[in-house]
Design a protein that fits this description.
The protein is mainly alpha-helical and about 375 residues long. It has one domain. Helices cover about 70% and strands about 0% of the residues. It has helices spanning about 10-30, 45-115, 125-130, 140-165, 175-195, 210-225, 235-255, 275-300, 305-310, 315-335, 340-360, 365-370. InterPro entries: Acyl_transf_3_dom, Glucan_succinyl_AcylTrfase.
């Protein structure tokens, strides 16, 4: 394994902060009309809000969780090198396994109980009922479960991944190779969704999105050998950012031309259909441009605020606690009955601030600081 495996870089920590905030905004947007599953939804008839929030969710989904996997894969070789096999396994079980179990058996059922108060249920009674019934709800912590699986696979094949990484260089960061990656991403997504459409789960995992997750995690681990994520140039990133921006509206245009506004079926979730094929590749082209832009722009940013260094350590904690926070904030602001987009803006900004504040408080506890 390379002795030049990457250490944690400041600009990558800033990306992690942005991605974590985006996760919170994403789930809040679903609460107010975006497409996706969430603990609590407030139905309304405003079509503009639904369209805009659904498009936001689609763009988010094209890259934000995939980029989390990319960064996780990128730092995995260094972690294994530094800690050794035993230390690596213990660290993964503590930092991923404990939060996964805690959320699945305690915080997840609590979030369900909190959401059910809108229907008149008492939160503590409902929580006790769910706990007694053995309710298991990993919620967004499916990510930790997937990382445990990926880490276990990496332990088995890391010599192969290292060997691939040694064949890569800065010249590997080419438009042709990116096109090849997107072709694999899109094809894999389409084929997986023939089996498990997006929105459906197997073992709490939305397998339909795992084409990019697998590709990006293990690609990130291979890229660590030559520290390639820290060598993205504007010549590489800018053209694909333009492609991404131009691609984003095409999904909506395709839906409109297919009669979606007239009630015609436009199902992109899976199946042997042109919309499903289009969406699989749309996702790859949109997500790639955004990820390249983030890797390039955050790295060259001059004099970033010191606030980033304060916020960055709270990311994982904020990720863990945000579901009940988003639901609680949604319940608190709902009596205001503002326009849905205004409700989204208010609830999402409050949820971000509260989630990061709670995470900062929890990390002051010595035992939790090691986990979070």
């Amino acid at each position: 394994m390379s002795r030049t495996a990457p250490i944690r870089s400041d600009f990558i920590d800033r990306i992690r902060v942005m991605l974590t905030m985006l996760v919170i905004l994403h789930h809040t947007s679903i609460m107010y009309g975006g497409d996706g599953g969430w603990y609590l939804r407030f139905p309304h008839e405003d079509k503009l809000s639904k369209v805009l929030l659904t498009m936001m969710c689609a763009v988010d989904q094209s890259f934000f969780m995939g980029m989390f996997f990319l960064l996780a894969g990128y730092f995995t070789p260094a972690s294994l090198l530094r800690k050794g096999m035993g230390g690596f396994v213990r660290d993964r079980l503590v930092r991923l396994g404990i939060p996964l179990l805690f959320f699945s058996f305690i915080l997840g059922p609590f979030t369900i109980a909190l959401a059910d108060t809108r229907g008149g249920s008492g939160i503590w009674q409902r929580w006790a009922q769910l706990t007694q019934e053995g309710e298991i709800n990993p919620g967004p912590l499916w990510f930790a479960g997937a990382l445990l699986i990926f880490s276990a696979v990496y332990l088995l094949i890391h010599p192969l991944i290292t060997g691939i990484g040694k064949t890569w260089s800065e010249r590997s960061l080419s438009h042709r190779n990116l096109l090849a990656m997107m072709a694999v991403w899109g094809c894999g997504a389409f084929l997986l969704r023939l089996w498990v459409p997006t929105g459906q789960e197997i073992a709490y995992l939305q397998i339909g999105f795992f084409s990019s997750y697998i590709l990006l995690f293990f690609g990130g681990a291979a890229a660590a050998e030559q520290r390639l994520l820290e060598k993205i140039t504007p010549a590489l990133a800018k053209p694909w950012l333009v492609v991404s921006i131009l691609t984003i509206p095409t999904l909506m245009v395709y839906a409109i031309l297919s009669g979606a506004l007239r009630g015609e079926k436009f199902d992109v979730h899976g199946g042997w259909t042109l919309p499903a094929l289009f969406y699989a590749y749309w996702e790859a082209f949109v997500g790639t441009g955004i990820m390249l832009m983030l890797l390039w722009r955050t790295r060259i940013a001059t004099a970033p605020s010191a606030l980033w260094q304060v916020i960055a350590p709270q990311c994982f904690g904020a990720f863990i606690v945000h579901p009940p926070v988003v639901v609680a904030v949604g319940l608190c602001v709902q009596p205001l009955q503002l326009y849905p987009l205004a409700m989204f803006a208010l609830a999402s900004s409050a949820s971000v601030a509260i989630s990061f504040s709670i995470a900062a408080s929890l990390r002051r506890l010595p035992l939790l600081r090691h986990i979070l």
